[in-house]
Q: What sequence folds into this?
């Protein structure tokens, strides 16, 4: 009976594995088609200064709805495209699409910056460098208007990548270190990289309570980033309490649903010039041990 159960378990496992592999192949095939047809769109989510209530930029976030289905989240399909070795095509598409949709808007607002999520491999890619240059020239934009986000989960390790990053930074592009605190939080490496802003991952944000309640992990992480001389952007701000918590600790730049959801360009542009919610900064004396 034990042998039978073992064989049954093995057969079920193999079937499950085949089903998963089948699904992965089906996703590959649909993504190959989507890449050929450039079937992706972008949403833009504001990044605001929550002390003075101004939108200072936005993050471009990719969206994909297969022809016959529901939207597939980027967390699901981006890793598949990476495994297909075709992430460079996506990064370039996103840069071109930002230019097409927001080129004129950005030209009129030299202080405004759109950030694009890129892969370490893009940094060493001549094609990607050329793609950025073309976008800037075509739309008359300054390099600092196209910022580049690198996730801490995928560290920049190769010399060619770090070199490419230095060249892009020297040209005037600004780098954001995304998802900070979730990956290979290596403050020594951060110090060696031309990173202008660090995006504190939304798991930290979710862990804070009332503005006055202390959260030693969040506070020491903020302190550590500041010690390296980088600006902080806090991600995943969903409530006014969270905004107040960070404002009380001197953080100005915030991103999250409380400020604005990711929306298509046409909806984003009218919002960008309007005041955003401002965090109420409580009296520092109200800070208490949690
Ligand atoms: P990310 O770069 O950290 O982007 C932020 C994610 O948090 C977005 O999810 C955004 O919709 C979500 N978000 C924003 N505010 C809030 C909030 O207040 N609460 C919560 N719970 N979530 C919030 P999205 O759009 O699903 O993107 C997921 C990830 O996919 C991104 O994380 C990024 O790593 C990747 N991604 C998105 N677009 C691109 C792209 O164009 N290229 C590449 N390579 N990766 C992309
Ligand atoms: Mg990002
Ligand atoms: Mg992020
Ligand atoms: Mg993230």
A:
């Amino acid at each position: 009976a034990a042998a039978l159960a073992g064989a049954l378990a093995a057969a079920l496992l193999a079937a499950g594995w085949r089903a998963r592999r089948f699904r992965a192949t089906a996703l590959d095939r649909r993504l190959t088609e989507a890449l050929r047809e450039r079937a992706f769109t972008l949403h833009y989510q504001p990044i605001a200064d929550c002390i003075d209530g101004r939108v200072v930029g936005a993050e471009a976030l990719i969206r994909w709805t297969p022809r016959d289905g529901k939207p597939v989240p980027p967390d699901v399909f981006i890793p598949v495209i990476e495994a297909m070795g075709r992430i460079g095509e996506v990064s370039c598409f996103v840069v071109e699409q930002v230019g097409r949709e927001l080129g004129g808007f950005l030209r009129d607002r030299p202080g405004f910056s759109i950030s694009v999520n890129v892969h370490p491999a893009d940094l060493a890619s001549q094609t990607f460098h050329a793609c950025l240059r073309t976008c800037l020239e075509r739309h008359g934009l300054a390099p600092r208007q196209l910022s580049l986000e690198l996730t801490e989960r995928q560290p920049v390790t190769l010399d060619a990548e770090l070199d490419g990053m230095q060249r892009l930074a020297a040209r005037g592009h600004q780098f954001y270190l995304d998802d900070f605190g979730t990956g290979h939080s290596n403050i020594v490496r951060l110090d060696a990289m031309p990173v202008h802003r660090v995006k504190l991952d939304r798991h930290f944000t979710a862990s804070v309570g009332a503005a006055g309640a202390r959260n030693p992990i969040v506070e020491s992480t903020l302190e550590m980033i500041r010690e390296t001389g980088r600006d902080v952007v806090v991600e995943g701000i969903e409530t006014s309490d969270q905004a107040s918590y960070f404002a009380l600790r001197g953080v100005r730049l915030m991103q999250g649903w409380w400020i604005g959801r990711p929306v298509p360009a046409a909806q984003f542009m009218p919002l960008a010039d309007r005041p955003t919610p401002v965090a109420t900064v409580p009296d520092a004396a109200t800070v208490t041990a949690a």
User: Anything to note?
Assistant: The mean pLDDT is 92.
